[in-house]
């Protein structure tokens, strides 16, 4: 089911001022429910084959025109920096990409605080090797359309000798669309100015399109720098992919060790994130879950933190409040509107098992391919990883880290503010371990056509 259906077939419309038919659908289209899909990572052995693949695949890449309506299945294509080198982009174009993008996510481990278990040396193949050139993703709300579309994409790359499939990860199809730790996800998303739809209740004011799509003014008033020539940069955006393995055994043991009843366990799980597993926000359902609220897109994001300045409902350090503090008064000032990201979370592997408590359960393949999109994805990711995920100072929480994706050290804590005394839980663990990551550029449809049509000679420039 797509957003428009979940809202009862109607969405308040607003003027369109971005070129929806040139922007890839995945930039704006919400993940459906239920959802099925596959992320394919490809290597280009021969630039000519790479360009041929783009020429053949581009007609099937969905545009964002009427993104709120959605087709049954859609394809997106994204290119890494090494992929664009292999495709033979002119040197001047290659040089025009930001340095962090050119060096790749693994090389930015220091800035991203990807240490210890999250260190790129522990990543799964093919991540961080420079081998990943093209990312093709298929999203669908129907199993059959998903399978057919993946087959169609495969048909195009398998018949080209110069293209190698490095990996193909199926995702979705989880009972209740829950993520690997058993929560409903992909609720909070930014509203984007000029995208044709009014913000949903609680989404906040629309953010300037240039924060998410290249070629339009951003929050600062001017468009962000974009790759040259214009046909390459305009209507494109950057994508960060982070593959997380969820340590379900460790997570369940943590919940059990710090609670006595199932009710307390669910409340602790909700405090870590800021929402009950059903998606119901603690601001609106502070003491008891409300699944109907969690399922209702008109109500489940309709809140601010104005009435909860100390975090008695939603802990200041919970995942959701860290990742989007909304109107929280922070000890280190930041403009929340310039740190927003579009998220496309895709859960893979075995479904969440609430009874799994063994160390082996940590290693059952299960987790998230977390996709975040932004016109300055590299910069935003560094900011989030350094300031809001692996630090607590902005909320006066000292060295406490994000309870969901923070890298926890020995004896780490999580604070649940309450009256008269707060509860400080000791021994929080790293629940989601990073097992891979890549930066991609998601070009516009005209840019894909431009790259596909590049003359072979440009590979020698
Ligand atoms: C395994 C990894 C992760 C899990 C299990 C997870 C889980 C969740 C859940 C359950 C929510 C609440 C529901 C929702 O609004 O979608 C949420 C919200 C959110 N998460 Fe994550 N997340 C993960 C990784 C990340 C990462 C890596 C980032 C960013 C760097 C991130 C950023 C956000 C944001 C921005 C929100 C929405 C906050 C809001 O608008 O109120 N998450 N996440």
From TrEMBL:
PROSITE patterns listed in its UniProt record: DYP_PEROXIDASE
Organism name: Pseudonocardia lutea
Protein name: Dyp-type peroxidase
Record-stated family: Belongs to the DyP-type peroxidase family.
Keyword Signal part of the UniProt annotation: no
Keyword Iron set for record: yes
InterPro entries: Dimeric_a/b-barrel, DyP_N, Dyp_peroxidase
Pfam family, one: DyP_N
Cofactor section: heme b
Biased composition (Basic and acidic residues): 296-311
Lineage, opening ranks: Bacteria, Bacillati, Actinomycetota, Actinomycetes, Pseudonocardiales
GO molecular function, one term: peroxidase activity
Domain DyP dimeric alpha+beta barrel: 74-156
Domain of life: Bacteria
Annotated region (Disordered), positions in chain: 282-320
Alphabetic keyword roster: Iron, Metal-binding, Oxidoreductase, Peroxidase
